[in-house]
Design a protein that fits this description.
- By secondary structure, the chain is an all-alpha fold.
- It contains 14 helices and no strands.
Length: 304
């Protein structure tokens, strides 16, 4: 693995470890009752937008065309607005187990969309790797002692599925756009767009929150969701997008249930036996197999 690939894998691993911590943490914030899913969504968008614009004051200035600003607004619709809003609202309506199971669809959707948008070949290695990782993730989910605060909801599950669909579209359809700019430049425009577009849908919930009644520990959890699970994660994901293929990027979704299982073990809510060890091996094996599959460029060079 060369230095560039290592940098991409390291960035994605860090981002999805944070996402893995975020799912149960977000569920506890929503279950507490003071903050609604729509209000929490707006905090994420507005908080991350402010942090990215602040960071841009210290980053290298990049010229960006009006056309690309419009395209970044469109990318924001899929990567942030639909993805995050539908997932948080869906998670508030369904169980963490259902939400975790549905996220395993992202690599499968991404592999299909990459073939459509980027003409990337659907090889046997990709198929085997994606399914191996999915099996490992599902093994973890169904053998974990995850406490569900909500029963299964068809509407909630459909919203989580919409979230996966939107993110898979973003990883593939907008890859060429994202690699043209730094993460700070692309994300500051995307989160600004998401903040403005979400305001009509979220403002009534944001204004209805009794901020004085929110306990300090919930504020700390909201801060983690905004700063770490939104700002830092979305700063890292474009690094992986620039250096790795979309299907490889999407495979890191399987890290989330693995992280959740580790957290449950650390908190004494679960044990890490042979089943979870085997599941973890399958997840990393699946990622490895996909990284060994040939890209379109590699196949064209061989045919040439």
């Amino acid at each position: 693995m060369d230095d560039k690939n290592f940098k991409g894998h390291a960035a994605l691993l860090a981002a999805y470890v944070i996402f893995g911590l975020n799912t149960p943490l977000t569920k506890t914030v929503l279950s507490h009752g003071e903050t609604s899913a729509m209000a929490l969504t707006f905090y994420r968008f507005a908080g991350a937008a402010a942090l990215f614009w602040l960071l841009s004051l210290f980053a290298k200035k990049e010229q960006i065309s009006i056309r690309d600003i419009i395209l970044l607004n469109l990318a924001s619709l899929f990567a942030i607005l639909i993805n995050q809003m539908s997932f948080i609202v869906g998670l508030s309506m369904t169980s963490p187990i259902d939400a975790s199971v549905i996220t395993t669809l992202v690599p499968i959707m991404t592999m299909i969309f990459a073939a459509f948008f980027l003409k990337e070949p659907v090889t046997w290695k990709k198929i085997i790797g994606v399914l191996t990782g999915a099996f490992g993730a599902l093994l973890l989910i169904f053998n974990g002692n995850i406490v569900s605060h909500n029963s299964t909801s068809v509407e909630g599950n459909l919203l989580c599925m919409l979230s996966c669909f939107a993110f898979a579209i973003y990883l593939t359809a907008f890859k060429k756009l994202i690699i043209r700019y730094s993460a700070v430049t692309s994300m500051k425009w995307m989160f600004l767009s998401a903040t403005v577009c979400s305001l009509p849908f979220c403002w009534s919930d944001v204004s209805a929150v009794n901020y004085g009644a929110i306990p300090a520990d919930i504020y700390f959890r909201i801060a983690f969701v905004v700063v770490m699970a939104t700002f830092v994660s979305y700063l890292l994901i474009p690094v992986g997008q620039k250096l790795l293929r979309p299907t490889i990027v999407s495979m890191y979704n399987y890290i989330q249930p693995l992280v959740s299982s580790f957290v449950a073990v650390i908190l004494g809510m679960d044990t890490f036996g042979w089943t979870k060890s085997f599941a973890a091996i399958l997840i990393f094996l699946g990622v490895y197999i996909v990284t060994q599959s040939k890209s379109r460029a590699q196949m064209e060079r061989e045919n040439y």
